[in-house]
Amino acid sequence: MAHAYTPGLLVSPRMRYRVRRVLPISGDVLVTAGQAVQTRDVVARTYMPGDVTPLNLANQLSVTAGDVPSILLKKEGDRIEKGEPLARTKGLFGYFKTEFPSPASGTIESISSVTGQVMLRGEPLPVQVVAYVAGAVVEVIPKEGVVVEAEVALVQGILGIGGEAFGRLHCMTPSPRDDLTADRITDACKSRIVIGGRRIHQEAIKRAIAVGAAAIVGGGIDDQDLKTVLGYDLGVAITGSERIGLTIIVTEGFGDIAMAQRTFALLRSHEGQEASVNGATQIRAGVMRPEIVIPAAHPDAGSEAGPAHGGGILEVGSRVRIIRDPWFGLLGKVTELPHEPQVLPTGSRARVLEVACDDGQRVVVPRANVEITGD
Question: Given the DSSP bridges, would you call strands 199-200 and 215-221 parallel, antiparallel or unpaired?
Fold first, then answer.
């Protein structure tokens, strides 16, 4: 077999894009089918139960568990404010009474005469879901959320850190071969999605956080820089829940890797436009890619989508990126495509290929462990 179809990161100047926007638990949907929505419009809302604070009043007030219900100044279901007296002992001959102020605001959820504990439920936590892209609601999922459709330009990355962010695109390097260093990050980057070229430097990330940038995008990043910024090794779990002050998206891989020319050109062509980014990444089952989504400035249902890059025929000479450990993120060129399956170090058999990596290594990996870059 001389070649095979292999997927790759999607880069499209114009395409139809659908996204599900759903709540973690049942709630209220605030929009209707067919309604036009903007990126930051709230489309659904709910309330998560507040945190529970257990209060052992028997120990706190030195009374028996059975006496706790009789010394409470509130009953189950009552609301109480922080600092308000929750319980008061009977004292001795009506004197020397001791009061216990509530340590938090909330509602009395339960009172136990067996353990002497009172459970205080905190304030409900509001949760709301925004549209994420400017488009139209094409489906309403009752009590859960909606599906939004829009015409967009889309760029997928290989790795992201942090969740959803919004802002105007702001290119800070003149070419995809220039590093994004701290001196390129200015106060003008506040609330912007900063676009770099080659490697994102650790100092640039720190500076971007300091000025309040929404996100930062570049071709590559050093794994040690990423570890320093996060404070721990990333591992292989799903990303997107990190809270470092901004979202990071890497489009190519680890190291000094220039952003693909077509990717850089596409992002730069939308300079100053509002965009949405999401750093959530998962490279195993249920693949998720970090993405930059740019709503079309003038949506036209009759317009033709531009050519999208995202896969193709895998053959000798194809440019590929390795997407599994231990060579995750390395770029190179296919030099061999053996026809017969081979035995891997794990003992399993799979079709493989040989890659001449840009760093000089030659490695043999399963075909499922690469994607075409199309550079």
Answer: parallel
CA–CA dist 274, 266 (Å, integer) = 14
Q: State the Cα–Cα distance between residues 217 and 248, nearest whole angstrom.
A: 6
Cα distances from 126 to residues 46, 47, 294, 300, in angstroms, run 6, 4, 28, 36
Residue of 304, 373, 262 lying closest to 14 (CA atoms): 304
| C-alpha to C-alpha distance for 293 and 221, rounded to whole angstroms | 21
Class of the CATH domain delimited by 158-289: alpha beta
The torsion region of residue 328 among left (phi > 0), alpha (psi -120 to 50) and beta comes to beta
* C-alpha span between 293 and 16 (Å, rounded): 11
Domain topology for 315-372: SH3 type barrels. (2.30.30)
- 315-372 and 158-289 share a CATH fold: no
- Convert the pLDDT of each residue in 179-230 to its tens digit: 999 999 999 999 999 999 999 999 999 999 999 999 999 999 998 999 999 9
Nearest to 257 by CA among 219, 205, 216: 219
Rounded Cα distance, 40 and 299, in Å? 18
pLDDT per residue as tens digits for the range 74-116: 999 999 999 999 999 987 766 778 899 999 999 999 999 999 9
DSSP secondary structure letter of residue 305: P
CB 187 within 8 A of CB 235: no
Task: Look at the block and give the residue holding tokens 């936590």.
Answer: 125
CA distance 185 to 206: 10
